[in-house]
Structure formats: structure tokens, C-alpha cells
Amino acid sequence: MSSTQSRYHGVYARWKADPEGFWADAARAIDWIKPADKTFDPTAGAYGQWFPGAVCNTCYNAVDRHAATRGDQAAIVYDSPVTNSKRTISYAELKDEVATLAAVLQDMGVQKGDRVVIYMPMIPEAAIGMLACARIGAIHSVVFGGFAAKELATRIDDAKPKAILSASCGIEGARVIPYKPLLNEAITLSAYKPDACLIYQRPQCAASLVEGRDADWQAEVAKARQAGRRAECVPVASTDPLYVLYTSGTTGKPKGVVRDNGGYMVALKWTMDHFYGVEPGEVFWAASDVGWVVGHSYIVYGPLLHGCTAILYEGKPVGTPDAGAYWRVIAEHGVTTLFTAPTAFRAIKKEDPDAALLKHYDLKGFRALFLAGERADPDTVKWAEDILKVPVIDHWWQTETGWPVAGNPLGLGALPVKHGSPTVPMPGYALDVLDEGGQSVGRGKMGTIVVKLPLPPGCLPTLWQAEDRFRESYLATYPGYYNTSDAGYIDDDGYVWVMGRTDDIINVAGHRLSTGSMEEVLASHPAVAECAVIGVKDSLKGEVPCGFVVLKSGVRQNPEEVEKELIGLVREKIGPVAAFKLAITVPRLPKTRSGKILRGTMKKIADGEAWTTPATIDDPVILDEIGDVLKGRGLTH
Ligand code: COA
Ligand code: AMP
């Protein structure tokens, strides 16, 4: 489609001319208990507030209203190659499951405004748990299963949950990973202690329960069901938090991204048809995890708000059992739209470069592939286009925004594709690119991508109980703008190019991680004098962390042994998801004369990119030393 055939430009212009009218119209797609007093209040919150005065319930909009009109339609299809099981839950059944679990939560003392941490594998009960919280106005905080006990403890201490929902185990490929020991350890480590834990017992591994604190999920639900207990939807303010989702910040302390109810519903519902081009009743699959923002927005809330069937897949793109797994799921469940991270497609391409397995499946109903979570490299996009012969759409967003900042809006008519660019800003986002002094750099020039305030509905209003940190992290550097901390440029056609982070965040297999927090772990080892962690190029995961450490003088331990211990330490303190497998001892770290470690130059050396010796360097020879060490280990590209 040419640029003039798409409705995008008209829709974006309409939003720009009248943002409040635009979002007031979009809000009509939501059922409100009480409509908003006004669409936007510029005087409230850190940068204004959407839909103040409105009263609503997100679970009602995602479940109950469809149970009434499309009760027999599948709401969630659980497909788990790792346990060889499948389950279809209709909207009517989902309503009953959610209302029952919500009643159990109420019996556990959970009330509106209380936090509930959810530490669960990819089973339907994770989504049911989220919706049950939404139903009673409790604020859920889902923690990804690949994090270690210490990370879970940090989140428990910050969120102070009344209760925790968890399961006996997760399953990673062929491995069963008991969750309960991690949960127990996290509660031991945390200063704050939850009142109660509800544990879903999976057949692959039984968890022992702590008396007086833990209860058996299935038994409690059965009891509530027998007693006919069902919780009704509790009215909440549109501006009340629906959830807190922790994401990597620039320190070891994660940021608790707050999401409200009303604005989030409006934004997600709008994206389902206008951006993803999906109709109610169609099958939408986000192959992610409920522990990430993609899981919140597009495994659970977005598709359900729109009356779609959501796929909840417990498996990997490869190895469960092979690189045809995604094609099987698409064909078997009639998926129209798949959303995943580019890394998943790199994994499939590596195993099955000619996509021979695709020939076994009929993908006739499949319409589009959406990629996000990391930069979609042109090779991967082209490969996906070639084999699937459907639009492959890169879109850019962040945990903070909750929905795409930029993308190619299939629902409005796709614009011409430029490989490597996530296309154009969505209505709601007025983007600019600024230099360090806060001046707009103009078209085609690199700088920090910013969003002119206010952020649209659905984006974070603040950080959980940390308004100052919110202002400092996102609003202070460029007054009047939200700082995305992504570097990039906007070209002459208005296409956005997102090239990398301006801070110490790296993206490993689409998972967002802080190198700063890894440095904190390395520095805690008694043999380490100083260290630097950088993200280095990886053909599968996009980037992987690589730690450079200088040992304290007088350390007698063998450097290889220290390196092994450091790898173990990051796994123990942050979790396997960090994929920290490269620790390298070096004699010295390259620094500027003022003592700043030259991480950027080290990264260029490791990635095999052209680099120049910074004028401010203290001792240029050290850069050659680093290059030699990397070469010696076969690590340069
Ligand atoms: N619970 C416990 N451990 C987990 C986990 C979980 N929920 N999720 C991941 N892990 C572990 C993995 O087993 C692995 O451990 P290992 O080092 O012992 O092998 C480690 O964390 C790293 O996991 P991952 O980055 O997923 O690597 P992988 O090698 O297992 O798989 C891909 C690589 C590319 C196949 C996989 O990352 C993938 O499918 N990614 C695309 C989809 C996606 O999740 N995107 C996220 C945002 S949209
Ligand atoms: P997360 O909060 O985990 O969603 O990670 C957000 C970060 O991932 C962004 O700030 C970007 O650095 C990166 N990212 C996500 N999607 C894209 C994309 N389509 N192109 C480039 N970078 C992306």
C-alpha cells in the first residue's frame, strides 16, 4: 500500500488537532460504570491525568461483558508442548474461574488497593490470577519466573503484597524448575512478609506448604466453588492502579511501572483494531510471557478487552519439540496474528534456515507477524517476510508505555516498509529527537528520542510510590518531554529509527536487563577490585552481557575459578534470564582521565566495529589489551 492509501496520516492529524476529542472517542469502546468528568486534567499527576472521575472495572470489560455476548467462544487457549497438554477456556468459563479465584483472594483478606505478587509459569492460572485481582480492585505485580529469589525479594519489599500467587514449578524445555524453594527463599530474604501464599500444584512437581502461610490453590478454589462463592466486579477509579510491573532501571533497584485502569483499557482496545488490524472473535497470539509487559498487554488484557481468543503458549520457538512449533500453533488454533520478539525468529532461522518445517502446516488464516522487544534486524525481518509471505511489522515500545510508540498500523492500512525502522509514531505520541543540550537535532540526525508531554492514555502515570524517581528518571532531563532513553533519529519521511539505549540497559533475547545491576553483583565478589559489564553482539539473542573484571592485587585464586564463580553469582542473584555466561579477567579497565570507564569503546571493540581512541583516555594501550584478550578468547566479531 502506498503512503497515500493508508488512513494513518489522516488519523494521526486528527489526533494532533484534537487529542482530547480523539481519546474521548476511543473511550466509547469501553463500558464505564461512571464516565469521566473530563477526558484529560492537565493539572493532576506528574504530567496530567486521563479520564479523571471515571469509574470502571477492567475485569468486567475483559471478561464479563464478553461472557454475556460470546460466552461459548474461547477466551484463552492454553497450549503447552512442554507438558503435552492443551486447554480451551470459554469466556463463560473464564468468568466463573476468575470470579471464584477472586472470592478466594477476598477470603484471604485481599481488598481493593492491596498488592498481590504473581510469580507463575505460563499456565492459564497466571492470567486468571491477574484478572481476579483486577476484578476486586487489587493491584497485581507479576514477576517473571526466570528471576532469582533475590530479585523476587526486592520486588516483594517494594510492592508489599498482602498475598502471593505462585505455582509448584515452571517448565523450561525438558527441565522442571521448582518455584517454591525460590519463593520461600525470597520471603526469607525480604524484610516485608506477605500474609498468605496460594500455591498451584502442578503434576510435574509437588510443593510443600508452610503452615499458617501457604494454601493449596486447587483446594481453596474447590472449597469456594462448593460454597457458591463468586466475587463481583469492584468499581475502581479509572486512575487507580491496575498493576505494577517492575522493569530494569539503571541501578540494582528495579522501577515499579504503574499502570492505571481506564487509560490502559482505552489505549489497548484502540490498538487491537487500528494498529494490529484484528477483529473481535479472531485468534491473537503474543508469544511472550506474562512476566513481561507484552504479556500483560497482549497475552491478557488487549485480546480479551477486544473479545479475541488469546493463546497462552508454554514452550519455546525451538526445541519444544522443533523449529516448527510456532507454525503448528498457528495452524492448529487458527491464529491470525502473531506477536513475538525478533530473537524467536533468529532461533527458528538458525535451526531451520529454509523453513522446511513450515511445509507441514496450513497457515492460510495467518495475516501478520508483529515484532518488538528489541531492534528488528533487517535480515531477520526479510527472512520472515520471505517464508511467511505476510506483512512483518516491527514496532517499538517500552514497559513504561504499555503499547506501541511507533509502528506500522496494519489496521489503518500499512505504510511502505523500511527494513530496520519501526515506521511512524502512533496517535498519542509526538516524537522529537534532542541533543544533549535539549535542542531538536532535526531530521536524519541521531539523538535521544523523546515524547512531548503529556504521554497518551495507557502510559505510566508514575513509578510505584516513587514519584520523585519518576520525575528524575523520565521528565527532568528534557523539561516538557518524556525521555525514552532510546537513541535514534527520524528520517525525511517521518520514519523513526531506534538504534539503541542511551543508558546501561541491554536487551538479551528480548528481555530487558540492567548492566549496572550485574556490575553490582560482580563487585560484591571478594576478589574483584573493579568491573564493567557491557552488552556484546550475539547472533541469537541480539545482545549478551559480558563482564570485564580486574582482580584485587594479592588475590591468589585462579582467575578462571573467579570467572566461574562470577557467572554463578549473577545466576544466583539476578537469575538465569540474565544469560550471563561471559566473565573475563583483564589487567586494567580503560578509563578517561576523570576515571569514567570507557564502556562504549569496549563495546565497539567487542562488536568488531570501527572505533577511535577517545581524546580523554588515560592510557590508550589498555584498549589494545582488551582487544587482545577478546581475540584470545575468540570473542571478537
Ligand atoms: N523460569 C525459569 N527459568 C527461565 C524462565 C522461566 N520462566 N525463562 C527463561 N529461563 C531460563 C532459561 O531456561 C535459560 O536458562 P539456561 O541458561 O539454564 O539455559 C535462561 O533463563 C535464559 O533464557 P532465554 O533468554 O529465554 O534463553 P533460551 O536459550 O532458553 O531461549 C530463545 C532463547 C530465543 C528461544 C527465547 O529467549 C525466546 O523464545 N525468546 C523470544 C520470546 C520472548 O520471550 N520474548 C520476550 C519479550 S516479547
Ligand atoms: P521493554 O521495556 O522490555 O519492552 O524494553 C524496551 C526497550 O526495548 C526499548 O527502550 C528499546 O530499547 C527496545 N526495543 C523494544 N522494541 C524495539 C524495537 N522495535 N526497535 C528497537 N528497539 C526496541
Automatic annotation (TrEMBL):
Q: Fetch the InterPro entries from UniProt.
A: ACAS_N (IPR032387), AMP-bd_C (IPR025110), AMP-bd_C_sf (IPR045851), AMP-binding_CS (IPR020845), AMP-dep_synth/lig_dom (IPR000873), ANL_N_sf (IPR042099)
Query: Record's PROSITE patterns?
Result: AMP_BINDING (PS00455)
The secretion signal range is none
Q: Where is the AMP-binding enzyme C-terminal domain?
A: 518-596
Any Pfam family the entry gives: AMP-binding_C
User: EC number(s) in its UniProt entry?
Assistant: 6.2.1.17
Q: Which residues form the Acetyl-coenzyme A synthetase N-terminal domain?
A: 8-62
What is its EC class?
A: ligase
State the UniProt keywords alphabetically.
Ligase
> Family assignment?
Belongs to the ATP-dependent AMP-binding enzyme family.
Q: What is this protein called?
A: Propionyl-CoA synthetase
Q: Which species is the source of this protein?
A: Microvirga flocculans
